[in-house]
Amino acid sequence: MSGVLLSCCNTGHRGGPFFLAFCHDVTNELSWIKLDDVDFDFSRASGATGLFYEKDRCFVAIQGLHDPAIILEFDRDFRFKRLISLPGVRDIHSIKVYDGLLYATSTGTNELFEVDLRSPGKISRRFKCPTTPSVPNAHLNDYLRHGGKEYVLGHSNPFVAEGRKNGFIYSITDQKVVVEKLEHAHTLLDIDGRLGVLDSARGRVVVTDGTSATPWLQLHTGGILRGACASDDAMYVAMSSRRLFSRKKGLLQINVPDDHVVFGNEAFMSWLYRFDKGDLKSFTRVSLSEIAFEVYDLLKLDHTPAPDRLIPNAAAIRAQAWRQQFFWLSRRSAERPDDDEESLAGTARPAPVSVPSQKKPPAPASKPADMAFWEVPIEGPLTPEPALSPARKKLSAEPLKTPAIAKPAEGESPEANFQIVVKPGSRKTVIAFVGLAQLIGGMTTYNFMNSLKGTDANVIFVRDPRRSWFNGPIDGIGKNSAEIAGKLSTLVSDLDTKELYLLGTSSGGFAALAYAKMLNAKRILAFSPQTNIALNYLDSVGELRWIKLISRIKNPTMVDTSTLLAGIEGLDCHLIVGRRMELDTVYAERLKAIKGMHLHYVDSGHNTAQFLRNAGLLSDVLNRFVTDAPLKIG
Fold this sequence. Notes:
- This protein is an alpha+beta fold and about 625 residues long.
- The protein contains 12 helices and 32 strands.
- It starts with a strand and ends in an 8-residue tail after the last helix.
């Protein structure tokens, strides 16, 4: 069985040596590659970057070390063979092996090193990439031999304005730029005889014949494309999460009020895409979020590593790899607030700027082996992108907005925690429990009301500003769940309600399930709800998104919704869950055995209500819910 080898970078110094993963082509099962036989102290490493396979040998570049840099060599079954130390090389991004010579792209020094593998550590040649006045500190990240020529890939300094936009492919052989103005470019590869590259920030694969460049494959995703490989019939592309922490400072740099907003956002997930070359509209994808936020390189293997070198069921050990990383970063962040300019979260991309042409500086006579890879980007954009078919235009319909937290205005009354919209003459009432960001599935209550306009029902919106999963206290409503239920019952009675319906999203969905019995609800609709907030349960499933908030709840009386729903006669409860958010499906599956429980799956992430609204389906779903009609979703 064949599959794809993945290198995981920026995994965190305390995450353990979980740097290499293998994805089976047929089963899509993810496994870790064991590194227990490697004679090396991984506490100094933070991941792996470049990969290359040649003559039953696999080479892996280790990230996080300085001088000397380290490359590990394995046999075809991933048993450790030797360690190659490269003095003078820093921050290797790419490695290639041709005819017994290893080429290491030293991004830390912006050089290409040629190493004779017959004499490990002996650098036979090195090529320097000089800087220019307009583009200081170029950032080289890949090298490839293609069609009898040598190419390097890079962009200007990523820590200056517009740096990542000045991406280029330079032909060492022809001494010229063949592609320019790429955005955050990564990964050179051969695509059926054509030179390909990831135009990462634009989410596309570009091909070139050495004279012009054309977009070949477009992905509309929230992350950064990094890592690609091709087989005879398929194209594999990895998407990394947008950067969650600063590489320079090692600090968490999510500029949003609560971490849960990030972990419910598809922009902060990682994926492996597999496209059919014959029909680029056909693709499958595997979530990599359970193994790493960031993937660097992909390598197609025509075999499966030896079973004793694999750690199966990556999900079972993600707590060790992810959690140690995340909480280590959280502690560091709490000690030292970060305003690092490298953050990509929620940042608009600046408009392109032109870089004036300059003459290429002459190579120093004293260094004949050195070669000027690049002077500056050539003026002019890429070949215009062809029109995309609707099927390829938007592979992910999930919005990627980071919602702001709605706060009461100064002097606002406690009644701001509930809002009543009366439908004159109606005997039906809907209680809508608002989510953690004080939004309904990513929407404001006003926008959500637009979807409820066609329903014949009063609506009570309930907020939980303390984010206690509606355990209380909630000012103006109640100190605990019993008082909250009493207050809501009074509001419902005052509306002369005959039939009560509960709905909510995320933590609000939890509340809709938790209060169903206490409020004697006729029907419940929950979008992507948590169904158990017991800390030991969250630990068992590796929940990271809301663990910090839930741990702050004092003496919760509502914890496990399966218990709270027990014994309800004629239960009619519906859960709508996104297939792309694995933990949400785990929460839902634990309730499927309850009589009267109905699970519905849609092709989205966490914000399923917003997904349905964007698809034009939400109003119909809500109307069916309130009119007791069957719900047909997904």
